[in-house]
Structure prediction request, 231 residues.
Amino acid sequence: MPRNVGPGAIVNERQVAARRAVHPRLRAVRVAKAFHLLAPISAYVALLATGCIFDANYADGRYTCKDGACPSALVCNAAKQCVAPIDASVPDADDAMIDARIPAFTCADPGIVTGTGGTFMGSTTAPQPDTSSSLCSGAVMNGRDAIYRVAITAGQHLLVSISTSSGTYPVNAYVIASCTVAPNTPACEGAVAAASGNPINLTPAAGQHFIVVDNPNPSLSGPYALTVTVN
Prediction:
């Protein structure tokens, strides 16, 4: 018998029975979809409980690790990125830089200028000794010094400039052909020394030459920036 289920609506008993037969299948599908949507949340909660959460960001092709945690087999580096761990037993360029010995910047152990030169930062402050006392620019360079060696081939020019961040340090730089300690240091080449704002440009003979950062006053020393250009 038909029955009333709402204002003006009549539903056949067979239609009701058919709908009831379909409902379990619909419910199963809906449950499966809900489980699929909740699965990542459940996994997140599980990881949170074990303390293994990491912040994944694929914007630059890497995981980020703001919380210091990473996926398995990766470690969090200083840039907060998950990367493969470095095998400390395998030397690399950074190891070579760290392990490089710092010279004494003396005649016997000078700093080395390679290729076309560069800029070298340093200081003549103790424990740097007064190794060289060359007669240069009309003065004897009696201050604490730092010495560099450079190789020159025939016809090459040597440009030397020097500066300091200390206004009270009258730093100079000059070139000698052989590095002999005081009091037998030879006169500087070209009889001229570089000073802050006044570089020197020489054409030395082929061979090894020494660039000395120095000044006439033995009581003064300080930081310097030495720029050497070989061309």
